[in-house]
Specification:
It is built from 2 helices and 4 strands. The protein is of the alpha+beta class. The mean pLDDT is 82. GO terms for molecular function: oxygen-dependent protoporphyrinogen oxidase activity.
Length: 87
């Protein structure tokens, strides 16, 4: 990747978070500004943690898994948004 100066990423959903993360990783000298219009990050990703510790995932609407899903899953693992195994 060439030299980047300043980059603005619009939206703090999973796509915007991934874009900002990979820009920082691939162009460490770039100044990355993430802009989100709502009060929280995550877009359609929304977790509801109950007092008893149970977590309900209320989004996204759907994830289609394919041969390239490892990229998506590795990013979610990196962010701590999922567990490595489901029993």
């Amino acid at each position: 990747m060439g030299t980047l100066g300043r980059v603005a990423v619009l939206g703090g959903g999973i796509g915007g978070l991934a874009a900002a993360h990979y820009l920082r990783k691939r162009a460490p000298g770039a100044k990355v500004l993430l802009l989100e219009g709502s009060e929280r990050l995550g877009g359609w990703l929304w977790s509801n943690r109950r007092p008893d510790g149970a977590v309900f995932e209320l989004g996204p609407r759907g994830v289609r898994f394919s041969s390239k899903s490892y990229i998506f899953m590795s990013f979610l693992l990196f962010l701590g948004l999922c567990e490595p195994e489901i029993n």
